[in-house]
Amino acid sequence: MSAIVSVQNLRKAYAGGFEALKSVNLDIEEGEILALLGPNGAGKTTLISTICGITVPTSGTVTVGGHDTQKAFRGARALIGLVPQEINLEPFETVMNTVRFSRGLFGKPRNDAYLEDILKQLSLYDKKDNKVMTLSGGMKRRVLIAKALSHEPRVLFLDEPTAGVDVELRKDMWEVVAKLKASGVTIILTTHYIEEAEAIADRVGVINKGEILLVQNKADLMSQMGRKQLKIELSAAVETIPDALADYELTRADDGFSLLYHYDTKGERTGITTLLADLQKAGLQMKDLQTQQSSLEDIFVGLVKETT
């Protein structure tokens, strides 16, 4: 796949000297879902705003579909749909008119059949003649997505699309995103929800303090950086970990009935076999063993901690 969005040495600094973006380089492939993770103030929204041409960069370049966002803004912006964090809609207008107006802003000819199809995909068709003020928060977010898709963009940016949405509606939104990808739309979303990235992203990017820490295939990221945890349940509680097991860096549970052992999935040897043998030598009797793979959240937290 080729890059539909290319960011090269992008920097954004403000008058006071604060650098929101620090030489960011990022290629987004056509047809993929990229999840951009980062804590508050990491630069996620600034990056999206700059790519969309809303924020003027201090230096660096951004191209969308081959169009430079500074030199050929109209060509680049025509390819982009943006769903902002804030819900800012005309409350007394109907859903259909709201979406129709957005399409007109991009100079597209009227095409109600296309717009109705979008509303059906977003489960909004039965609300098309309702005023926006009568909709729930989750429905309003769907209207924002419909507006962003109204002019048939090839790239869709979703800035915290499920913020304030309950778990059930969040999962519905994931299904919507999957359908959009299937139709050929490239999707970039920022999120605070780690499970969102795990559920729908092809690649995961981590940004902190205006710098991209990594961009990697989700599965590769999990396998290369993930660690496993072995939980050893004991037949009898222990107050302290025997000195003979000190090299394993075990962690004792508060109740003393289990021990935790962490090991690297990339290592040639996990050390589990010798650990279990040494447990017996130390007089500890095992009741059960459980393993758990590190989550993307564990990896994310570890990366951010390294830069703080």
TrEMBL record:
Keyword check for ATP-binding, yes or no: yes
SMART domains registered for this protein in UniProt: AAA
Q: Which domain of life is it from?
A: Bacteria
SUPFAM superfamilies according to UniProt: P-loop containing nucleoside triphosphate hydrolases (SSF52540)
InterPro entries, per database record:
AAA+_ATPase, ABC_transporter-like_ATP-bd, ABC_transporter-like_CS, ABC_transporter_ATP-binding, P-loop_NTPase
Gene3D superfamilies from the UniProt entry: P-loop containing nucleotide triphosphate hydrolases
Under CDD domains, the record lists: ABC_DR_subfamily_A
Domain ABC transporter per the UniProt entry, residue ranges = 5-234
What Gene Ontology molecular-function terms does this entry list?
ATP binding; ATP hydrolysis activity
The alphabetical list of record keywords is: ATP-binding, Nucleotide-binding, Transport
* Protein name per Swiss-Prot or TrEMBL: ABC-2 type transport system ATP-binding protein
